[in-house]
Structure formats: C-alpha cells, structure tokens
C-alpha cells in the first residue's frame, strides 16, 4: 500500500495497529520527494538523516507503549520557522548562512507530539508575496500546473501536501499565507484566532526568538483533510510558556453544532472593490448548495455584516504600515515622496497602501480604534450566524509573475486587470479583526485548477469553522491528488 497520500489520522491508526512503521512511512516520503520534487521544488531544506533517526526513535517509543498525537507521522515545516541546525533565511540572500541554535516553539511542540520532520518548505522573499520564490531556493511550482504559482507565503507547504510529501505542515498567515496556497493547491489550512498559537521562533533572521505578540500575524496548520487540521491545531494551540503560559491554560470551546442542519451560515461572493472570478464564484456556490442540501440555514445578505470597503481599507492600513517598519531610511524616504504625490481624492487601494506605508503613530492608533468597532460588529453578526463562507482570492492559481515591484503587478480576473495586491481583500476580511478562518477545497475539480473557499468563524471559537469544514468534506469531497 502507498501511504504518501493517506491522512495523518489514518497513518496514526495504521501505526498503532502495527500495519506500518514510522521508518517505512519516512522512507517512502523521502523516496517520493527525491523522485518528484525536482519539478515542484517544495522542500527547500531537506533534513532526511535526522528524519530517519526520529522515525527510528518513534518506533522505539511506540514499542515502549508511549502514546503521542503525532507519534511517527512525517511532516514538513515552513522555512520561516527556526529549526536548530538548519538555515532560516526567509528567502533573503544576505541570511543564507544564518542557522539558529534552538527550535521555534511550534517545532518543539511538533517534536514533543512525536512528529518526524522531513525538512523545510519554500517561501517568498521576506514572506511578502502570494507566490513562493526567492534567489536562494528558486521557485515552487503548483503541482496541478507547473507554470503557475503554488501561492504564498506558505506555498512550499501547500505544494508539499498536494504532492504527498508528508501528511501535515505548519505555516503562517498575515495576508492569506495559509489560506491562499491551500486554495491554489487544493488542500486544507486553518488561520487560527489571533494570539491562539504561540509564534516564538517564527521570526526573520537574525532577530532573536522572543515571545512577542505580533499584530495580524498567526501560525497555523495545513493538511489534506479537515480532521487533520484539528489534530494538528490541538498540538499548536496554547500561550507561550515564557509569557501568558506562566499563568494561563487554554481550553477551546466545542463547535457550536455537530450537525450540518443546525448551522446558520452567511454566504458572500461579491466584494465592492474587485470582481470575483467565475471559477471562484462557482466554488462558493457549490459550497452554498451543499449547505442548503444539508439543511443549514443560509443567507446571502445581512445588515450585520461590517462594511467590506472599510474593512479592506483598515486591513491595508494595518498591514502595510507594519510591513515597511524595518526598511532602510533611504527607502522609507522614497515612499514618503511617492505617497506625497498621491492625490487626496484618490481612494483606491493602491493609494491606501502607499499612505499606510508612511503612517504616523497617531494614524495607526486611529486605524486600530476603528478595527475595534469592526470586531464589535463581528460579535453582533456571530450572534445571528455561526460562520461566513466567502472567497480566499478572486481567482485560482495564476501564472508565475516575478516582477520585483509588487505595486506594478496586475491580477487578471476574467479578462479584467486589477492591481495585484487588491486580491488580498478577501484574506484580510478575517485577518484584520483576528478571526479564525478555515480554507477548504470547494469540491472535486473535474478539470483545470482547484478552487477553495474560507469558512470564517467567531473569535476563539476555532472548532466551529473546523467542524463545518469536516461536514462539508463529507458532502462535497475534499483533497484530490493532482493528475
């Protein structure tokens, strides 16, 4: 039996039953990577010798009667996480030789749970793209169409999962970096509630691995099934033991419902600032039809929904004001000059982004205050609904575009060009207020590229969108291996 595309849950059962060993699973995964990754380029830093040693240790631990949630399961880790003894570069050439001395907290949790780490997966330069390519490791291709992107910034992890390179992966998300690659590659991902999972050690080199609370950014799980997302999330959640973990334990509330027919869902497929491509709209409608067929209460409009235009504006302001914080003074001054040249009447998202890059602290505080109003609006909405279904990006995976100036790039939506970064508005809908969002495949594609949607849930009720993802997987299918 070939194990590479089996779910982690199924592998764990087979290991417990003695049907396979971790050494066998690990050797099979490594063989597949060595056979297929030359064209996908997902695994940028292999760690096969230590993986084989960890697999032998897992088999010995099982023989001693040890029980751990991921014992012996082969996994991958996004390159941006520190792993002792392996380079952490974030794709930045000047740090190609930077090797941290200790594991990120999430890598430590993976290992403590018994996972076998096969290696690290590719990312874009500085994690700042919805593609995954950099000068050090090259370009990661979409397993469905090698001329197209696998997404970013967790594109290597999504491509690895779709290619059968390990059963699970961990990534991160600030601009859809978990959800977009999952959507482009036909796999699952979960962006946790902001602050739910500790992020220490997921830090750009050579910065020290400190337990800082980051705005907007989260770390989270990727998998080939919805249940596997929950399995991995349970390993990842919890405060940093150096800070809140000193005094706090974390207990997530159960899902609001177990039956599909009990869910109340708001479905969105239109955004006021850009079109939704026909393929993505069809995916949203496929999920909506499955919800209706399953007896769920489905609405297409609600006066409780926070204003989407203001939400996108706030997201861009918060995201881009922080993204340039470490720029050299000369580059920052160039941005100030560009922003000063923008007409006061220009309210496009391009203009919003430029102005945000030179925000004052006063500007940021005002945007943050308006964010709190949006959070309150979401609380009111989730008193009436259990989840919101909407796109992740407006298109399936697009052809590689390596123009170094993201502001010059364009995204084609059914023949109409939009600024490249405008596609972030759907991802930002959950990111700006810090809500959990689960990316799922929107049915089994019969031809062409996969399409996903996201299920946005109430803050700190991550099990609600995850349970809905499981129920939808049962009705519309889930991961399908690329042909």
UniProtKB/TrEMBL annotation:
Q: Which domain of life is it from?
A: Bacteria
Supply the Pfam families for this chain: Amidase
Give the enzyme's EC designation: 3.5.1.4
Q: Name one GO cellular component term.
A: endomembrane system
Top EC class, one word: hydrolase
Amidase domain span: 24-464
* Xref: InterPro entries: Amidase_CS, Amidase_dom, AS_sf, FAAH2
Q: Does the entry feature the keyword Hydrolase, yes or no?
A: yes
Gene Ontology molecular functions: amidase activity
Write out the entry's keywords from A to Z: Hydrolase
Keyword check for Hydrolase, yes or no. Answer: yes
Please identify the protein, giving its name as recorded. Answer: Amidase
Species for this entry: Streptomyces natalensis ATCC 27448
